[in-house]
Amino acid sequence: MPVESGSSAAARQAKQKRKSHSLSIRRTNSTEQDRAGMQREMLEGQDSKLPASLRNNLLDLFGQIEREFENLYIENVELRREIDTLNERLAAEGQTIDGGDLSKGPLKAKASHSTSQLSQKLKTTYKASTSKIVSSFKTTTSRAVCQLVKEYVGHRDGIWDVCLTRTQPVVLGTASADHSAMLWSIETGKCLLKYIGHAGSVNSIKFHPTEQIALTASGDQTAHIWRFMVQLPTPQPAADTGAPCEDDVDFSDKDEAEADGDVSSECPTIRIPSTTLKSHQGVVIAADWLVGGKQVVTASWDRAANLYDVETSELVHSLTGHDQELTHCCTHPTQRLVVTSSRDTTFRLWDFRDPSIHSVNVFQGHTDTVTSAVFTVGDNVVSGSDDRTVKVWDLKNMRSPIATIRTDSAVNRISVSVNQRIIALPHDNRQVRLFDIAGVRLARLPRSNRQGHRRMVCCTAWSEDNPTCNLFTCGFDRQAIGWNINIPALLQEK
């Protein structure tokens, strides 16, 4: 009669244990719905000041948490049983192979390797389960504090830049690769004015601090200054855009086709600028007003930034020193300071506070193209890069950043809110994330098949005083979006 080996007996016992355990799991699942119903009835019987919809959402979330941890516990028990079975089998094999000691030689290595694999599997399962729970909380928080309010559709190509006027009435400006710039009503989403004076892509738009004057930079190697007058239409009731959604859903071509309609055909059009600035030998990628509005600075792919006098259109200074093309320029809101960023992985601070001389400081710290660098109200500069990082710098100590934000995608033109100093990061991967000035992550704007950008997000802009929308984004999907960010709730969540 054949004798059953120790390893075969151990395998048969493990199989019986797993079969018994699977039956217990089925019994557990069969009563799960009954238990959840009982818990819900008990909780609903208690007094609560929470709205019914919010309370039901919380009940569902807690139910998901319980199920996730229950599944994790079951998998943990099962894996530990498999480890015990493996140890028993290895011990039996150790007795039959020349009386080998399990603590020595190749058997020890085999046992250690197998146990390590199972331990790694257990850790992976735990991380996956807990990340699901954390993701559920983050998604719910983002929907509660970040809501899409209005979409601005009408451009025929990607939108590179977005900006808000600093005078009344406050309107939204967009600069597009379709060779045009548009002004929009924030409340209605209607196009109020269209500028078509450029012969190339319009890469940036900025507004005069005290007058209704716009400054645009273009791929036609020029910057234009043009005046505008707009009248706001009567606001219409806002559509409900707060429907539930799921994150990270891919978009179809049909969604993009919806943006092909020319809704700007009825807009008044401006074709001729008041002033043309044309000293560059390459694409003008950005432009901005210096404090006071009497001078402007432009940044170009010819590796130079130019400072112009607005009244005479004369070139005042040519700021050279970057080794590669410039990508952005920005001016300080209250001082005569300019910061330029470049593909040479640096950004430079130019100081014009002394009329007789201007100084320059070079900031090094990124490993790829610096896509933008902007001032905060205090003595900080925030820089974003294609190296997937954002760094916060102190102007008084330029040796190293005081905070570094690491992300999973290249960062484009960032903006910092004036009052709360919240940084809005637009990404190549269609996401927009919010951080505080210390580098703490606050939220991610919701994105789904119903709302959000379909392609790369190019730029963000804050509006401090608008009660409807206080953050605007634009992207290469031909649209700009207005968001309502509940900043008190956002900071409270932090």
From TrEMBL:
- Keyword Disulfide bond recorded: no
Keyword list (alphabetical) reads: Coiled coil, Cytoplasm, Nucleus, Repeat, WD repeat
Q: Does the keyword Aminoacyl-tRNA synthetase apply?
A: no
| SUPFAM superfamilies noted in UniProt | WD40 repeat-like
Q: Where is this region: Disordered?
A: 1-36
Q: What is its main location?
A: cytoplasm
Q: Where is the composition biased (Polar residues)?
A: 22-31
Record's GO cellular component terms: cytoplasm; nucleus
Ranges occupied by WD repeats: 152-194, 195-226, 277-318, 319-360, 363-403
Source species, domain of life: Eukaryota
| SMART domains xref list | WD40
Location in the cell: Cytoplasm; Nucleus
> Which segments does the entry list as coiled coil?
62-96
PANTHER family to which the protein is assigned, alphabetical? WD REPEAT-CONTAINING PROTEIN 37, WD40 REPEAT PROTEIN 12, 37
Q: What is this protein called?
A: WD repeat-containing protein 37
Say which species the protein is native to: Lepisosteus oculatus (Spotted gar)
